[in-house]
Amino acid sequence: MSGCEARDAKKLVRSPSGLRMVPELRSARSPFGLDEPPWVPDKECPRCMQCDTKFDFITRKHHCRRCGKCFCDKCCSKKVPLPRMCFVDPVRQCAECALISQKETEFYDKQLKVLMNGATFFVTLGSSDKSELMVCRLSNNQRYLVLDGDSHYEIEIVQISTVQILTEGFTPGGGNTRAIGMVLQYKVPGSEELTQMKFTAGEDFSCNKKLSASWLAAMHKATKLLYESRDQ
Known about the structure:
Layout: H1 3-7, E1 10-15, E2 18-23, E3 61-63, E4 70-72, E5 78-80, E6 91-93, H2 95-117, E7 119-125, E8 131-138, E9 144-148, E10 152-156, E11 160-168, E12 178-187, E13 194-200, H3 206-231
Antiparallel strand pairs: 1-2, 3-4, 5-6, 7-8, 7-13, 8-9, 9-10, 11-12, 12-13
Protein name: ZFY21 protein
Pfam family, one: ZFYVE21_C
Organism: Rhinopomastus cyanomelas
């Protein structure tokens, strides 16, 4: 097994919430992941935290795997995939959490693949007036933004501080906008200063415009998940 394979190795673990396939090394976890929440102790939860129904021998309590709160079966009956916590199978979630997890499914089923497949942009580093045509993609382990052209960069996702999507086509009347690029700032390991990088979709590559716009939209969603993970 190579060093990279060893770092990305996974193991199957069982928690009170279900089976999870997690990285053997915590440092190898996805930057979009969430930790399992602590469950509200049974003794602190005599009633459903949604409908206030009192628990008894017939009305049993269930914990939402995403928020850890306590609900009756009616308020926590949905089993929904939760890839951000690495669950192997769909798990029980309250209605509010199930809705959030269902919306995230599109990112994991579609947009993550778009990011890994990559797209082509003109990339400008810092205040330079020169740009370089590069293929930009998310690494398979989701931890790096990889840029390949004449130069090569690997930006650790957790080191990205801000991402601004650049658009065009907005009108005061509410016209459609189209993503044409992005500006991101990140920290180089060992330095506290921020480095800026600008990505612009090339006007000469009309066949790639749609691909670039899709990649930028996926990156916008990825950024939102990244911020959520940090705020956990």
